[in-house]
Automatic annotation (TrEMBL):
<dbReference type="Pfam" id="PF00809">
    <property type="entry name" value="Pterin_bind"/>
</dbReference>
<dbReference type="InterPro" id="IPR000489">
    <property type="entry name" value="Pterin-binding_dom"/>
</dbReference>
<keyword id="KW-0489">Methyltransferase</keyword>
<dbReference type="GO" id="GO:0032259">
    <property type="term" value="P:methylation"/>
</dbReference>
<dbReference type="GO" id="GO:0008705">
    <property type="term" value="F:methionine synthase activity"/>
</dbReference>
<protein>
    <submittedName>
        <fullName>Dihydropteroate synthase</fullName>
    </submittedName>
</protein>
<dbReference type="InterPro" id="IPR050554">
    <property type="entry name" value="Met_Synthase/Corrinoid"/>
</dbReference>
<dbReference type="GO" id="GO:0005829">
    <property type="term" value="C:cytosol"/>
</dbReference>
<feature type="domain" description="Pterin-binding">
    <location>
        <begin position="16"/>
        <end position="268"/>
    </location>
</feature>
<dbReference type="GO" id="GO:0042558">
    <property type="term" value="P:pteridine-containing compound metabolic process"/>
</dbReference>
<dbReference type="InterPro" id="IPR011005">
    <property type="entry name" value="Dihydropteroate_synth-like_sf"/>
</dbReference>
<keyword id="KW-0808">Transferase</keyword>
<comment type="similarity">
    <text>Belongs to the vitamin-B12 dependent methionine synthase family.</text>
</comment>
Length: 308
């Protein structure tokens, strides 16, 4: 049976897959459409994401405690009435909602996500195996967020062994090492990149993903995209294969399809240790140079980091 990666576009050097994030219960219009079973906003969003070039569509119901087992299959079928050639990601903490929706998926699906907690993976890994579903392996353990790359690695080994024993292969697991806000936990940004360097050795063939916009949580809205794009480029250089992102962010979508080599190149120079003179690059690239230096801890973060 086909896996998620088998139906996705092939990636060239520097490219990555985009998971559309906007079919989310926290959105005012989409949240209302979920509640009222109004297909029009849901289908309009799915068609927009397809037009923008997303590779996967995330359907995020949140907890969906009350009626998730009815809502998730309905949303899946509603989306597939207008977009049936893009894989869907079933995103909710309600396990029965995912179970009810998996048989409805026309393309190979993904479960988002399975935490490294026995109470979760003991119930969800067999379900993923039963339906041949990929899953997002979330590095969130019994004690919450791992402190560093070594704790992430230990969690990954635990979940990988459980999944492999259930017959799930490494290339059906999309490892999410968890992105945290740079203005609160700056060392975690480096830890995640170190973990990504370890991933191929720990788990050959594994894929990867993340909610990259978490890097800019708490930052003024008009500046968030700069950090998001910068960290996307940095993680891409460390082997990240996909990003949960806003399809209306044209810069990220262009990067995903290999159209912004200038951003990737200048970020790589900084990550390789070069002291890039901001005056030697364009005004746009200066923002990414300054942001990379903040993420790497070379300069202190403040809401005015771009003005320094």
């Amino acid at each position: 049976m086909a896996k998620m990666k088998d139906v996705l576009r092939p990636l060239n050097e520097g490219e990555f897959w985009v998971i559309g994030e906007s079919l989310n219960v926290i959105g005012t219009e989409i949240g209302r459409a979920f509640k009222e079973r109004d297909p029009k906003p849901i289908q309009a969003e799915a068609l927009l994401q397809k037009e923008k070039g997303v590779d996967m569509i995330d359907i995020n119901l949140g907890p969906a405690k009350k009626d998730g087992h009815e809502l998730m299959p309905w949303v899946v079928e509603t989306v597939q009435e207008v977009v049936d050639d893009i894989p869907l990601i079933l995103d909710t903490s309600n396990i029965e909602a995912i179970r009810a929706a998996l048989p409805k998926c026309k393309m190979p699906p993904m479960i988002n996500s399975i935490m490294v907690r026995p109470a979760r993976y003991e119930a969800m890994v067999p379900m993923a195996a039963e339906y041949n579903a990929d899953f997002c392996a979330l590095m969130w353990g019994p004690e919450g967020l791992p402190r560093d790359e070594n704790e992430r690695a230990a969690l990954l080994v635990e979940l990988m062994m459980v999944a492999n024993e259930a017959g799930i292969e490494n290339d059906q697991m999309w490892v999410d090492g968890i992105v945290t806000p740079v203005n609160i936990q700056q060392p975690q940004a480096i830890s995640l990149m170190n973990f990504m360097d370890m991933l191929p050795e720990i788990m050959p063939g594994a894929l990867s993903t993340c909610g990259v916009s978490n890097i800019s949580s708490g930052v003024p809205d008009e500046l968030r995209y700069v950090l998001n794009v910068t960290y996307t480029a940095m993680l891409c250089h460390h082997g990240m294969k996909s990003f949960i992102a806003d399809c209306k962010d044209d810069i990220t979508m262009d990067m995903a399809h290999g159209k912004r080599a200038d951003i990737l190149d200048v970020i790589k120079r900084i990550m390789d240790g070069e002291n890039v003179d901001v005056n030697s690059v364009s005004e746009e690239l200066q923002k990414y140079v300054k942001s990379a230096n903040v993420i790497l801890g070379k300069t202190l973060f403040s809401d005015s980091w771009l003005e320094v």
